[in-house]
Design a protein that fits this description.
It is built from 18 helices and 10 strands. By secondary structure, the protein is an alpha+beta fold.
Length: about 525
Amino acid sequence: MNPTVSSSHVVTPNNAIQREVMVDGDSNVTALFEEFGKAGYSYDLLHDSQGRITNLFLAHPISVKLARAFPYTFVMDSTYKTNIYNMPLLDVIGISCFNTFFYAGFGFLERDDEKNYTWALNAFKKIAGHGDRPVVIVTTWELALMNAIKNVYPTTTNLLCVRNVGKNVSENCKKYFGCAKQFGKFKLSWKNVVNSTTEAQFVRNWEELLSFCSDKKEAIEYINNTWLPWKQNFVCAWTDKSLHFGISSSSARAKGAYAHAKLKEYLQISTGGGFQEVKDYLHGTMILIFTEIKAKLGSQSISVLSICRMSLFKQLLYRVSHFALKEIYEQYKKSEEGTMAPCTGHFMATMGLPCSHKIKEWHGRALPVELIHPNWRIDSASLSLKTDSDTPNDVNAKFDKLLNELQPKFQLWSLNKKEFATMVITKLINQSDLLCEQVIQRPQGSLPKSNKKRAISPTRRDPSRFEHVESSQTHYSSTSTCVGRNSGGTVDEYDYIFHDNNSLDLNLYPDFSSDYMLFE
């Protein structure tokens, strides 16, 4: 039996309380998850047979709202050694219509392998309700994560972070060059390869690099074996066919890198670096981000850029973000100044905005709003100014549907079956999951300097219930038994379901098959 099970499929016996001392009936982690629920957080988790959390994916209610409003492009990266459990932490970053970043979710993982990444992406998919909507996901060269993306989002284009590719190439090839000037020429030549806009240009630039490095066989061998097999994921000749909204540009990459760096910095200087610290950072940061987006949305819905006071923009005003309007204006200038390069279709394909050639076709007439991709629209009904999470939840909708179907069927069941169903539902309502943290991994030797700094939270807050519980806690250890389902949906090797020192004997209800189990 798999030792890791989903909390929604588990009922834990009362003696599991001995795993952690309880305060007011709840463990410190249980208190934290109650805070999540009351604050409207969406989360999914796995835990082992001892109740220790092995995987946790967490999203702020504002993160869910923004991820659903801007579901097309995301940046994903993992950070390590930034939490007290020594668990890999996956952060998912989205890009708004204002070309600003937001955190779409965080995932604590047991390991950074394909299985755990696949679980995290499925959790994000359920929370954000995307289906196959993400057009592009940008990652570093992490094969486990890249394979997981293929599993969960098979129609999504996975691009590699050009900044990360360049950094790896520089670090691995610098040793083969004797002087800085020669190495600088190599980096410029490699940059030309990456920025090749056509496949033919890529071939020419690659041949020039080979010629320049004719005596640097080790460097060429490294690039040829490590990066060229992935050229379609980071060379412009291929990536500029994908709708990435400029995420491959240096400015957009910098925004994603900045968001990731700020998270890492906060966790390294915070005291603890656990579930609570990530929740605090996410909460404070998302409030600030949403406030900024709210202000931009309000101002740009009633103001007009001076450069857009012409008939060309008439149908776009108050409906398209200023960032997108500025991009269109730059294309308009090219069409007016006659500085247009031959049309490759790359700008429209990558940005979802009309290029200079398309603008030229309209001869100064008003551009229709249909030429603008929904990602840049500020008049979309999906983008609300409300801070509460009123976005429909897929799981809640399914549950409501089941309740509506249950009532008429319940009337037709036998008394025996009605009694069993009533008992199970009652227990589900009264049960509370008993969870505990991962084992804290204490660092060897002295703490890094950054860990000794005082943490600066994005917003000030009063101590949470979690912290009140944790401050008065002592620890005990024991073993426990849990009940789970296998992949086929049936109960494995169990005769009883335990809860609160009571046991429910399934043998008393031989006519009630596992099909009626209501745990999923």
